[in-house]
Specification:
The complex is a heterodimer of chains A (about 260) and B (about 130). With about 260 residues, chain A is of the alpha/beta class. Chain A is built from eight helices and eight strands, in the order βββαβββββααααααα. In chain A, strand 4 and strand 5 form a beta hairpin. Chain A starts with 12 loop residues before the first strand and ends with a helix. Chain B has a single domain, classed as 3 helical TM bundles of succinate and fumarate reductases, CATH 1.20.1300. Chain B starts with 17 loop residues before the first helix and ends with a helix. Classes of the chains: A alpha/beta (about 260), B mainly alpha (about 130).
Chain lengths: ~260, ~130
């Protein structure tokens, strides 16, 4: 259901202010969403003044700097630091993306950092993605092929292989799904762009033998057709993929097959 | 997750894109158009009631609010039509690249306004 306002316990309050102690002239204000599960208080926005003269270029570097030098209590996920693992997906400057590939220079004014939208927050910038993972496993994202393993390659033509380009690169960071208003309102039933892109990746794989079953399974008023081509997914994808197009291709296959 | 865990902010903080703006406007104009079509039906029914009710509608259309209402109706329908054409191309599998969809989106926004002005000029015989 569409619920514009946040529930009472989720309302965001003004938080602490961490004044710059380095005396640097090149200061930027960074506003970060904080929630501590141990206190039972509402979430708050903490403001940090950061010395930008000694800060590397990406938003993740900025967060690391704050955690190392100003406030060690702040929590966020990160791992590879070069846009491959998808751990540090968050909402920066009103748009989802990977903190490790987003240059803070691109952000004008104060830097606002929130967790991915419309998720249950576990702590600070860490959202709970278990619903998305459950939906991901529901599309059975593995090759279904009755051929016996004879130790040889499962050969695909160049043309068939090229159909997977723009799909296999997905790192499941959830930037697209959590950018989608339809997924906000119907996240429990609608599969969302990330999972539908994965579903399509297995539907078009020429080596997979269960295309019909996969299509039948996904053809559902709520699972698939809650996509209204809002295109927030494609706008958000940090890997430059196009989940909106993948969903449209599934819809097209359903009416033409 | 328990109910204790807060829900992270969503529509409050998320940036508007051209595509999301048109999507919500498409829905709103869709609802408005249904209401307007019902009103047009009443208008036609009013003609059956004779002279006085015809004059009542005529006076409404001559008033400033009536003119605004007509122009709004024209824009609302044009917006819906252009946006629907965009949707048809999408359903055929075209126009999903970010650049293309942004350009077609701008065409929908500005096209609907420009066409409204053209229809206004033609309808008022201002040329």
């Amino acid at each position: 259901m569409v619920q514009i306002n946040l529930p009472q316990g989720s309302k965001v309050q003004k938080g602490k202010f961490y004044k710059d102690k380095t005396g640097s002239k090149n200061i930027r204000k960074v506003n970060i969403y904080r929630w501590d599960p141990s206190t039972g208080e509402n979430p708050r926005i903490d403001t940090y003044e950061v010395d930008m003269d000694n800060c590397p270029s990406k938003v993740l570097d900025l967060l690391n700097k704050i955690k190392n030098e100003i406030d060690p209590s702040i929590s966020y996920r990160r791992s590879c630091a070069h846009g491959v693992c998808g751990s540090c997906a968050m909402n920066m400057d009103g748009k989802n993306g990977l903190a490790c590939t987003k240059p803070h220079k691109e952000i004008k004014g104060d830097i606002n950092i929130y967790p991915l939208p419309h998720l249950k927050v576990q702590k600070d910038l860490i959202g709970d993605l278990s619903t998305l993972y459950r939906q991901y496993s529901s599309v059975e994202p593995w090759l279904k092929n009755s051929k016996k393993d004879d130790g040889k390659e499962n050969i695909q033509t160049i043309k068939d292989r090229s159909k997977l380009d723009g799909l296999y690169e997905c790192i499941m960071c959830a930037c697209c799904s959590t950018a989608c208003p339809s997924y906000w309102w119907n996240g429990d039933k609608y599969l969302g762009p990330a999972v539908l892109l994965q579903a399509y990746r297995w539907i078009v794989d020429s080596r997979d033998e269960e295309r019909e079953e996969r299509l039948k399974k996904v053809a559902d008023e709520l699972k698939l057709y809650r996509c209204h081509t809002i295109m927030n997914c494609t706008n958000a994808c940090p890997k430059g993929l196009n989940p909106a197009k993948a969903i449209a291709e599934i819809k097209k296959m359903l009416v033409t097959s | 997750m328990t109910d204790k865990n807060p829900l992270s902010p969503h529509i409050q903080i998320y940036n508007w894109h051209i595509s999301s703006l048109i999507s919500i406007c498409h829905r709103i104009t869709g609802i408005i158009n249904i209401i307007i079509i019902s009103l047009v039906c009443f208008w036609v029914a009013f003609l059956l009631l004779g002279n006085s009710s015809y004059e009542f509608i005529q006076n409404f259309f001559e008033s400033y609010f009536g003119k605004f209402f007509i122009l709004g109706t024209v824009w609302s329908f044009l917006f819906q039509i252009l946006s629907e054409v965009r949707h048809i191309f999408w359903d055929l599998g075209f126009g999903f690249e970010l650049k293309t969809s942004n350009i077609t989106g701008l065409i929908v926004i500005f096209g609907s306004v420009v066409l409204t002005v053209i229809i206004f000029i033609l309808g008022r015989n201002l040329l």
